Amino acid sequence: MPKYILFFILFSLVQPKAYSKPLDICSFFYSPDFLVLKEIHKVKTPKIRLSEDKFNFHFENIQETLSGNLSTVRRIENKWKTQSGPASDYLIKLTSSADDLKKLTPKKRFESMVQKIKTNKFKNINMRDKPPASGATDHTFTYYTKPIVSETGAKHQYRFRTYVREINPDKLTSKTVMGFMEDGSIVGVEKVAGKYVIKKFKKVDGELIVTSTQSNLNLQEFKSFYKGMDTPKMYAYPHGKGLKMEVKSRLSDNLESNFIPNMNGQSFVQKLDIPVTMDDVKIMFDSKNLDPSLYDEALLSLRKKLSETSQKKYGDIGPKRVDAFFKLYDDALRAEPNMRTLSGATEYQRVAFELPIPDKIDGSSIKIQTTFDYDQATRFVYNRKGKLESPIEVFENQTRLTPENPGDLHVEFKAPEKLVQKVVEDPSSVSDEFRNYIKLFNDSKPNADSHGKFNFIMGNY
Fold first, then answer.
1. pLDDT, mean of residues 303-320
2. Domain assignment present for 17
3. Measured between alpha carbons, how far is 399 from 422 in angstroms, rounded to an integer?
């Protein structure tokens, strides 16, 4: 019997059937036979299909709550899979810098260019997120759900994202590394004269105040604060507190351009997010912890809570976002009850650069970005008992799957759709800066492929 048929049969036997048992497959995922585990995980879970009318209704409903921020406004998000060498060439041209790093290996060359930008060596490019102090590394962590698709190839997908900060105790310095613990408390760690220091903070009138300090700790005492983790982990401060629930929508619109042909295809997206907690995620996507008969009541309670918190954060538009999120969720759940199983998670390190341009849209200044993701992997997100794990718990298990070539980079170019359409219609109608940036990205790519991270990694480990 062909191997793929055998694996398909095994997958079918453990495929979840209903609300009450959506996670049975997870116990098999954690079986000792890791090779079989990997083959089953490569089988794509069925997409959730909605009629074109219903899909478009939700698209427009979500769109009405969009802001002008680049992270949510309709934008191009064109992707490029490459290696350190081509990525370094792109960065060097992007910064208009002299290539004085040719003697380095491609990986070291890329790392050196990123370090130069981190230390503000260039006026025309800025880091979007401040990097952590020495001794810490940030990873973007994203739970993925099954995609909700239309007949024309458009897609909605719920995702839950946060940022995990890993600590290397040997590399800590006297400069404090800040983070959130899983209970939301704020902690800072450092190393002074070979001994570790742990400080706890609270915010008072926007200022961080130290509430307690543990000093002169040895390595074992330091690790014991983090439950004995060899590589202590916490959520990145200030942007990693809690999770963001996103609905990311890829439009069916195709970009067609002779000016930037390597960016042609379905690359336009829109995204909305609202803050949630790990317990919120478990209500929506971990039904083993919730009696099915209580599910509707729990979901109504969650919607009310999220509407209230979103009202405080976003004003009147907040509850409308929550309503749009859950109307789509309700229809997706009716179309596919097993939607309540998460498909997995990605983790990666990201450096994101903002590129200043003088262009404006409707009189407002705008930003464009290019991002570089590396050290990419996927993770299983349920433990042996089928319980959904937090991002930090997931980081502690041994199910990290990486692409065949661990040096792969995922590079993206992001700019508002209105500006991209202008350059497509008439390249001279935009500023020299924007035209040069988008043309450089196009010319750096070898073709028009623009695949996402999750399926790419799952198909190449």
1. 92
2. no
3. 45
Token digits of residue 137: 């590394």
| Whole-number Å distance between alpha carbons of 259 and 21 | 51
Judged by phi (left if over 0) then psi (alpha if -120 to 50, else beta), residue 103 lies in alpha
Of the pLDDT bands very low, low, confident and very high (cuts 50, 70, 90), residue 164 is: very high
Strands 243-250 and 48-49, bridge-based pairing:
unpaired
| Token representation of residue 222 | 């330091």
Q: Are 456 and 412 in contact (CB under 8 A)?
A: no
Q: Quick one: tokens of 422?
A: 């202008």
Together in a domain, 62 and 174: no
The number of beta carbons lying within 10 Å of the beta carbon of residue 55 is: 23
Count of other CB atoms within 10 angstroms of residue 427: 16
Identify whether 15 is part of a domain: no
Dist. CA 368–CA 346, nearest whole Å: 24
Mean pLDDT of 299-311: 94
Rg over CA atoms, the chain: 23
User: Is the torsion defined by CA of 284, 286, 289, 295 positive or negative?
Assistant: positive
pLDDT interval class at 117 (50, 70, 90): confident
What are 399-430's pLDDT values in tens digits? 788 877 766 889 999 999 999 999 999 999 99
Q: Which two three-digit tokens encode residue 238? A: 């200030």
Clarify whether residues 352 and 407 are in a common domain.
yes
Domain count, the chain: 2
What integer pLDDT is reported at residue 411 of this predicted model?
94
Find out whether 328 and 156 touch, Cβ atoms under 8 Å. yes
